[in-house]
Each structure stands twice: as structure tokens, then as C-alpha cells.
Design goal:
Elements (H helix, E strand, L loop, with lengths): L1 E5 L11 H15 L3 E7 L2 H6 L1 E9 L8 E7 L6 E6 L1 H4 L17 H16 L11 E5 L5 H8 L6 E5 L7 E2 L4 H4 L12 E2 L2 E3 H8 L2 E4 L2 H6 L3 H4 L3 H6 L4 E3 L27 H13 L10 E8 L5 H13 L3 E8 L1 H13 L4 E5 L3 H10 L2 E4 L9 H7 L3 E5 L2 H6 L7 E3 L4 H16 L1 H13 L4 H18 L1
Parallel strand pairs: 1-2, 1-6, 2-5, 6-7, 7-11, 11-12, 13-14, 13-16, 14-15, 16-17, 17-18
Antiparallel strand pairs: 3-4, 4-5, 8-10, 9-10
Helix pairs in contact: 1-19, 4-5, 5-7, 11-14, 12-17
The structure holds adenosine-5'-diphosphate (ADP) and alpha-D-glucopyranose.
Length: 474
């Protein structure tokens, strides 16, 4: 089975969040079970600089905005995963992140940038593909690829497509005036089409035109059919309920392996946990926290966004410190939250370390060196940090939502609270602190957490079964 996996991020080349982790690992897991899966990525500077074995394939004509682009073929640097890259320097070769400039503002031409990317995905999956490899199926991810199923369907192509929602909060909504630029027929600007409250929504296009829809946990697949977390798409998602499934993400168990993690000063495993204590001491030293091995150390790693419930952490921070706890936070994002955590750190030197920035090595060292991981997300499609925490014996405290609810067992591998309020979080933190003080109970929880298996193989088999069922009905 030949699968073209279109995504705007994939680690280790380019990452802003969990989408990159999934795109870096799921296609590899699919190949490991015998599928011919290949990635399609935009040619951001980091992608062009980081990939290997680059060869030109062809020029791409007929793109939105008459953009000039070339298709390249290459491989991932670490595992040889085959890639196609849309090389369009005027769109992708620029400073800043994949979606925003250095100042944190969206690139003004994002509609064109991702219309072109989606269009190329559709062209490669079409019957007259310029490749000597014809995909049986196009797998799209998030709004950046949302127009691809629309281009395919509206041009009468029959290659089936899947739209995977990693986060319904990001929808790629642009003014209606972009309709002619992206080159969709005017009739598609309708409720039964790409129209969303008077604007053009790339995500809605994907949700409407793709043959099947998936999201990254079973609970989130249920939650998004209802107004509370449906972000305005609940109507469409419930209508398409029969085509929507939740497949839980896995984790890359080689990248996230405490027994073999090059980012850690000491290694450890479920059976031999002494190294974890040493990682904690080293982390305290590195982050200027008091060198106290009994102080419960709370880790937080997140995009600083409303979704992640960081204001709830700010609200319980005093309580944690009062009980002798320490907090190590790593994150970047909303300026107000960055400032609030900086202030908290300045107010409590030795007890709170706020590192504002993006640092992959430190994210591994916080997972390894913390005792407890805080993840009070208001909603969480899957969440990966709670899974890394489980594997690193760092007991997660999570809100019962989406993938958090599906992966953390209350009182067994972590602490789960029902309402996204500071009070409910505090009660769960209190339970965690009591358990932490009971060495036997804590050891039992750590062992249970570390023994859970979240490797990709099971999820890859579920995607395989879905692909097969689609090709049978196609
Ligand atoms: P989301 O995709 O919503 O951000 P996930 O939990 O699925 O949430 O994935 C987040 C990923 O990004 C994890 O791999 C996490 O370690 C990483 N991450 C988030 N913020 C940072 C940061 N400041 N530095 C390093 N890694 C980060
Ligand atoms: C999104 C979600 C996160 C999920 C990730 C990968 O960014 O916010 O919950 O784990 O995508 O699917």
C-alpha cells in the first residue's frame, strides 16, 4: 500500500509541537509493518538544510498564485525515511517559524503558502501524478493540508483521502477574498463546502471533502462532536460521525528512552531507577533550584497557550511551594504567560525555575529529573508529554480530557481531575504530594507508569486497517 503523508512539520527537521513528533514517527512505524509511506513537507530552510540525498524531481506548474516551485526527493537524516519537498523559496525560505515571523505574527501570505502545499499534495495523489510512484491514498494532517482533499475531489479524482485532526483549535480561517487566489470553484464556498461563518476555512475543507476523518485519541473523537470542544465544527463532525475515528498517538520509544537517552546525564529504567534521582539532582543544580532530593519537583513543558491551562498552574503555585515543592517550567508562547512565569521564578529563586524558550535537550532532562508532571490542559487531542512522563517515571497530574483521559489511570499511573479549575487541580496536586511522601506507594506508581506500552506499532496497525477498509470500498 502506497501512502502519501502530507504534513507541515516532522521531527527532527521542523517542529513546533506534537504534530512534528507524530509525523516523524508514525510514517516510520507504517513502513516497519510493510506499507510504502512517504512524507510530503514544505521546503522550509530547516527542512532543506537538514534532509539528505536531495534530488530534483520536476518543476510544478499550475499552482495557486502562479507560484514557481520545484519538487525535490530526499530522505530523513536519521532513518532514511523517503521525503518529497515542495521547494518554493518565495513561500517557505524565510526567517521565523513555519507559520509566524520572528515577532510572532502570522505570515501574511499563509493562505497562499498552504494552498500551494495542499495543491501539490493533491497533484501528487492524482491519476496524472508527476511521480513514478502513484499513492493509493493521501493522508492529510491539520489545516495546512486541509485544501488537498477539496482539490482532489473537486477535480474529479478518485484517490481517497484522510484528514487527521491534531488540534481543532487551529483552523486556517482566511477572508473569503482568498477563494479565487486558492483556485477553488465559487460554488464550493457554501455550508456544504469550505465556507465557515462567512470565511474560508482550510480545516473545514478537509473535514468536508476527505473520505475519512481521524483524530488522535478516542475521547477527543467523541468530544469534538459536541459544542463544548467542537470549536464550531461540531455540526459537521456529528453529521460525519460514521466516518470519524480516534486513533491514539504512540511515542517514539527510541527517542524517548530513559535507558538510552543521549540528552540525560544519567540513564535509568523501570528496574534500575537510581539514575533518575541523579538526573533530578543535576537538574536542580543546572536550574539553580535548591539541592534537595526530597523536595517534590514538578515539571511543566508546554506551548504557553490557553489550551494548556497554565493559568491554573499559576493559581496553585503558591500552594505547591508552601508544601516544600519545586517547579521547573520550560515553554514559549503567549507573552502574558511568559511574563507571569518569569515573574514567578524571580519571586521564588531556588524554588521555581522558569525557562522561557524552546530547548529539546532540556525537555528530556525535565521529563527525567521531575517527580511529578503537570498537564492541566483545558482540552488535549492526545498530548505527548504525559506519555513521555509515564515512560520516565514522572507521575502526571492531568485534567480528564481527550488523550489525557485515555492514557493516565487515576491513582495507578497518575492523578486525574475532572473539572478544569484551580481548585480541582489543587486537590489532585494534594493527592500527588501525599502519595509522593509515601515511598512505597510512589515506587508502585512509578513502576506501573514505566511499564505502560505506548509504542507506535499498535496505532500503526489501526491506521493500516483504516487504509485497507478505504481501499476496499474505493
Ligand atoms: P502540542 O502539540 O499541543 O504542543 P503535545 O503534548 O502533543 O502538545 O506535544 C508537544 C511536543 O512539543 C512535545 O514533544 C514537547 O516536549 C514539545 N515541546 C513543547 N514546548 C517545548 C519547549 N519549549 N521546548 C522543547 N520542547 C517543547
Ligand atoms: C496537537 C495536540 C496534541 C497532540 C498533537 C499530536 O498539537 O494539541 O494534543 O498530541 O497534536 O497529535
Amino acid at each position: 500500500m502506497r501512502i502519501l503523508f502530507a504534513t507541515s512539520e516532522a521531527r527532527p527537521l521542523i517542529k513546533t509541537g506534537g504534530l512534528a513528533d507524530v509525523s516523524g514517527a508514525l510514517p516510520v512505524a507504517l513502513r516497519a509493518i510493510g506499507l510504502d509511506c512517504r512524507l510530503l513537507l514544505p521546503g522550509y530552510p530547516a527542512v532543506i538544510a537538514g534532509c539528505v540525498d536531495v534530488k530534483p524531481v520536476c518543476a510544478l506548474n499550475g499552482l495557486p498564485g502562479d507560484v514557481v516551485a520545484n519538487l525535490l526527493e530526499a530522505s530523513m537524516p536519521d532513518n532514511g525515511m523517503p521525503l518529497y519537498i515542495v521547494d518554493a523559496p518565495e513561500l517557505y525560505q524565510r526567517k521565523g517559524g513555519p507559520y509566524q515571523d520572528i515577532a510572532g505574527h502570522d505570515h501574511p501570505d499563509n493562505a497562499l503558502r498552504f494552498a500551494v502545499f495542499s495543491k501539490v499534495a493533491a497533484m501528487l495523489a492524482a491519476s496524472d501524478t508527476p511521480l513514478d510512484w502513484h499513492p493509493d491514498l493521501l493522508h492529510c494532517n491539520d489545516w495546512q493540508t486541509g485544501l488537498a482533499p477539496a482539490y482532489l475531489r473537486l477535480s474529479g479524482e478518485t484517490t481517497p483521502s484522510i484528514m487527521t485532526v491534531h488540534n481543532l483549535a487551529y483552523q486556517g480561517v482566511f477572508p473569503r477574498a482568498n477563494m479565487s487566489l486558492v483556485g477553488l470553484p465559487p460554488e464550493s464556498f457554501a455550508i456544504d463546502g469550505v465556507e465557515y461563518y462567512g470565511s474560508l476555512s482550510f480545516l473545514k475543507a478537509g473535514l468536508y471533502y476527505a473520505d475519512r476523518l481521524t483524530t488522535v485519541s478516542p475521547s477527543y473523537a467523541e468530544e469534538i462532536r459536541l459544542p463544548a470542544l467542537g470549536m464550531g465544527m461540531q455540526g459537521l463532525l456529528s453529521t460525519r460521525g460514521a466516518d470519524l475515528v480516534g486513533i491514539l498517538n504512540g511515542i517514539d520509544t527510541e527517542e524517548w528512552d530513559p535507558a538510552n537517552d543521549p540528552h540525560l546525564p544519567h540513564k535509568f529504567s523501570a528496574r534500575s531507577r537510581a539514575g533518575k534521582q541523579r538526573c533530578k539532582s543535576k537538574l536542580q543544580q543546572d536550574l539553580n533550584l535548591e539541592p534537595n532530593k526530597d523536595a517534590p519537583l514538578f515539571g511543566v513543558i508546554a506551548r504557553l497557550a490557553h489550551q494548556k491551562g497554565l493559568d491554573l498552574i499559576l493559581a496553585v503555585a503558591d500552594g505547591i511551594l508552601h508544601r516544600g515543592g519545586q517547579i521547573a517550567l520550560l515553554g514559549t508562547g503567549e507573552k502574558v504567560l511568559e511574563a507571569a512565569f518569569r515573574d514567578l521564578g524571580a519571586l521564588h529563586p531556588g524554588q521555581v525555575a522558569s525557562v522561557i524558550g524552546y530547548d529539546e535537550g532540556l525537555s528530556h532532562r525535565i521529563e527525567a529529573g521531575s517527580d511529578i508532571f503537570l498537564m492541566p490542559s483545558r482540552f488535549e487531542p492526545c498530548g505527548l508529554n504525559q506519555l513521555y512522563s509515564l515512560r520516565y517515571g514522572t507521575i502526571p497530574v492531568v485534567h480528564a480530557t481527550g488523550g489525557l483521559k485515555d492514557t493516565v489511570e487515576d491513582g495507578v499511573t497518575g492523578f486525574v481531575f475532572e473539572e478544569p479549575t484551580a481548585h480541582a487541580l489543587w486537590l489532585a496536586v494534594d493527592r500527588a504530594l501525599r502519595a509522593h511522601a509515601d515511598k512505597k506507594a510512589w515506587k508502585r506508581m512509578m513502576r506501573a507508569a514505566m511499564s505502560r506500552d505506548f509504542s507506535w506499532e499498535k496505532s500503526a496497525r489501526e491506521y493500516e486497517a483504516l487504509y485497507r477498509s478505504m481501499l476496499e470500498t474505493a
